[in-house]
C-alpha cells in the first residue's frame, strides 16, 4: 500500500504531532479563560489573558483554535437614544469635545456619566453610572425605578464618596434633563465640579459612557430575563464590582483591568 512502517504505527497508535498536542493543551487553556469570562471574551482578550499568564502564542492561532472549538465572544448590539432634553435648561459648554484621551496620571480629573434602561418583569430599572476617563473605572453608580434627577445625583455622590477628587474635576454628560437641571448644578457647585455636556442628538459626544452600556448589555443584561429589580441590581453589582472594574481586560488600557491600570500608574508615580 506504499505506506511506511513509521506512518503505519503512528496511525494505529493514534500518535499526534507535537504541534497538535500543543494545540490541544492550548485549546483547554483557551476554554478555561473563555468560561472564566462567562463566555464574553473574544480572541483579543483571551490572547491578552494567556499572555499575562506567560503563554506566548499568536493572536491568530488563538482565534483559529477558538473557531475550531466553537468559542465566540459577545458583540454589542446597536443602542437607541434615550436622552430626554430640556429645551429650557441653561446652556453649558462641552469641555471634552470628543477627546477621551486622558494622561495616565490624571485619574479623577475627568469623569463622564449617563443613564440606561434595564427591562425587568416588574418594570423598568434605571442605571446611572460615573466613569473615570483615564482608567475607564466605574467610580460611582446607582439604580432606581424612576428617572428623576435624584438618580444621577446618587451616582455622582457615590463617586465623590469613593474617590474624593480635587476641586476642578470635569463631569461630562449628555443634555438629558437630569444633567442640566438646577438641582444637579447645585450638587456640582458644592463639590467644585465643572459640568460639561455634549451636543444634542450626538451619542458620540459621550462615547465612553455609551460604550460601557453596550458592553454591560451584551455581556450581562441581554443574556437572560430579569424577574425582579433586586435581582437585576445584584447582578449589576457583581458585574461592576467583581468583574468589570477588577478583572475585565480593556483594549484601551493595553488589556489591563481598570484596577490593575490604576495600580500600575500609582506604582510608576
UniProtKB/TrEMBL annotation:
**GO terms for MF:** nucleic acid binding
Per the UniProt record, one Pfam family is rve
Q: Where is the composition biased (Basic and acidic residues)?
A: 12-22
Integrase catalytic domain ranges (all copies): 89-266
Give a short account of what the protein does.
Answer: Involved in the transposition of the insertion sequence.
* Classification via PANTHER family: TRANSPOSASE INSF FOR INSERTION SEQUENCE IS3B-RELATED, TRANSPOSASE INSO FOR INSERTION SEQUENCE ELEMENT IS911B-RELATED
Matching NCBIfam families, A to Z?
transpos_IS3
The protein in question is named Transposase
**What organism is listed for this UniProt entry?**
Virgisporangium ochraceum
Amino acid at each position: 500500500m506504499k505506506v511506511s512502517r513509521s506512518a503505519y504505527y503512528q496511525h494505529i497508535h493514534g500518535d499526534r504531532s507535537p504541534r497538535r498536542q500543543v494545540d490541544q493543551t492550548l485549546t483547554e487553556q483557551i476554554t478555561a479563560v473563555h468560561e472564566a469570562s462567562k463566555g464574553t471574551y473574544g480572541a483579543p482578550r483571551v490572547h491578552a489573558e494567556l499572555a499575562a499568564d506567560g503563554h506566548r502564542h499568536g493572536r491568530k492561532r488563538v482565534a483559529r483554535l477558538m473557531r475550531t472549538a466553537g468559542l465566540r465572544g459577545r458583540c454589542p448590539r446597536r443602542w437607541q437614544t434615550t436622552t430626554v432634553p430640556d429645551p429650557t435648561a441653561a446652556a453649558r459648554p462641552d469641555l471634552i469635545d470628543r477627546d477621551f484621551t486622558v494622561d495616565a496620571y490624571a485619574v479623577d480629573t475627568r469623569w463622564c456619566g449617563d443613564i440606561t434602561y434595564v427591562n425587568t418583569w416588574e418594570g423598568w430599572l434605571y442605571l446611572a453610572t460615573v466613569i473615570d476617563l483615564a482608567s475607564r473605572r466605574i467610580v460611582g453608580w446607582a439604580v432606581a425605578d424612576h428617572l428623576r434627577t435624584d438618580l444621577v445625583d446618587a451616582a455622582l455622590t457615590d463617586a465623590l464618596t469613593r474617590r474624593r477628587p480635587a476641586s476642578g474635576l470635569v463631569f461630562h454628560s449628555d443634555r438629558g434633563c437630569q444633567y442640566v437641571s438646577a438641582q444637579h448644578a447645585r450638587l456640582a457647585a458644592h463639590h467644585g465640579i465643572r459640568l460639561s455636556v455634549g451636543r444634542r442628538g450626538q451619542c458620540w459626544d459621550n462615547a465612553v459612557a455609551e460604550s460601557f452600556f453596550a458592553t454591560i448589555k451584551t455581556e450581562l443584561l441581554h443574556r437572560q430575563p430579569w424577574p425582579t429589580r433586586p435581582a437585576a441590581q445584584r447582578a449589576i453589582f457583581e458585574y461592576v464590582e467583581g468583574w468589570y472594574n477588577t478583572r475585565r481586560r480593556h483594549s484601551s488600557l493595553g488589556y489591563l483591568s481598570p484596577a490593575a491600570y490604576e495600580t500600575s500608574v500609582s506604582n510608576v508615580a
